[in-house]
Write a structure and sequence with these properties.
Length: 210
């Protein structure tokens, strides 16, 4: 910010206050209107934060109800990315589940402009497959769109040619994700263009997609 801008800002605010005061001396209702706008402006930041917490609680409640409706009682949650792991932990606390497993995920840039990036899950991790163990497990997906991370996670988790015997639950799912992954349960439908990460109250800036 330049020196002129730093000076001009307070001068502009002072000029507006003087103008409102002068107008209010002839119209008393102007002061009430000004008070309303000041109160509304001050309330916007905390109300936005409260809305974010409400959104989190709502999707966790919907996820709990989805599992209950399907009569699914997993003993553990498995996640394949950061957001899924965070929400899996919160949902586990809500349901009294003690075990949460999160596999590492990385994305490699595309080799050509026309090819998609490569998503890798569980790299350098050795996973011993146990069907009974997996039957009592549920995979938590934060936002199901193309399913690239889910597919990579299943490839890391399951032997070739087998399907996951437990439950897969997406907290948010796009129309494309729902159509492509028909066996996946979902708590909420995410409209086209909606980015659920935008409501994370612990973020101080824009969400960085990895």
């Amino acid at each position: 910010m330049t020196r002129v801008a730093r000076i001009a800002g307070p001068i502009g605010v002072a000029a507006n206050v003087i103008a409102v005061a002068e107008f209010g001396s002839h119209h008393e209702w102007a002061y009430a209107l000004l008070g309303f706008f000041v109160a509304a402006t001050l309330a916007i930041p905390p109300s936005s934060k409260l809305l974010a917490y409400y959104s989190i609680r709502k999707v966790l409640k919907d996820a709990e109800e989805t599992l209950r409706k399907e009569q699914i009682q997993p003993e553990r949650f498995i996640a394949f990315d950061r957001s899924s792991a965070i929400y899996a932990g919160m949902l586990a606390q809500r349901l009294g589940i003690s075990e949460v497993i999160s596999l590492p995920r990385s994305a490699r840039p595309p080799q050509t402009p026309l090819t998609p990036r490569t998503v890798v899950v569980g790299e350098r991790f050795r996973i011993e497959y146990d069907e009974e163990y997996m039957k009592r497990s549920a995979i938590i997906v934060f936002h199901l769109r193309t399913g690239a991370t889910l597919r990579a996670g299943l490839e890391a988790l399951m032997p070739a040619g087998t399907t996951f015997p437990g439950c897969i639950l997406a907290l948010y799912a796009s129309e494309g994700g729902i159509a492509h992954w028909r066996d996946v349960l979902y708590a909420q439908n995410a409209p086209q263009g909606k980015v659920p990460q935008d409501v994370f109250p612990w973020m101080s800036g824009a969400y960085i997609h990895m």
